[in-house]
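Subgroup meeting minutes
Present: P.N., E.W., G.H.
Scribe: E.W.

1. P.N. recapped why we're keeping a running log of single-chain structure predictions: easier to compare across weeks, and new members can see raw inputs and outputs side by side.
2. G.H. added today's entry (204 aa).
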Amino acid sequence: MDFTYGMQNERLDRGVAEVMVWNIRQPSSKAAASEAAKDFLALNKRSVQSGLTTACEQTQFRRTHDIRRHEKPPREKKVPPAPPDITFGISTRPSTPVFELLAHRYQEEWLAETRKQEKRQKDELKGKKLNGKVYETRASLLRRYSEPVECAPLWKMSKFTKVPASLQTFRTEQDRTAAFVNHASDATSRTGMFGHGVYQPALS
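Output recorded in log:
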């Protein structure tokens, strides 16, 4: 018994001529009308005009009436024909100048342009004049003036506060004052708490 189960496959290949033609199946007007969506705005408006205001009445009205949306078909864009001498694709990028890269030419050009721009900005700042009053800030005032700080006297026992010194190593009071002033100015570059140590190395 010669019997084949299943569904027969329909052959759609009809040759090269049909393959070269791009055939798009256009939907029929009946199919487009059946696929159109319901226009709920029009249905609700019609139900209110009929005097139906409750939710149940409007639902029943939408079930018994059918209004579809009328959508305009999309416009077909007409593509102008291409000129016969046109070349499609992206143009080839020019070759990289290897010699200029090795010679750091782009870096030198950037540095020269940056120097010109900085010089131009400095010249513009020099040409501008400050009009009006220049207000002083706390930082600018502290740079010009520093409030003197009185050094606290060294600690002594109360019974020795009124006892005069028994040893005088300076000939006059002026020599003593000058020695302490010189020691205070020299102590900034020496080590130790009181500035009696060796000189500190220069800090960069």
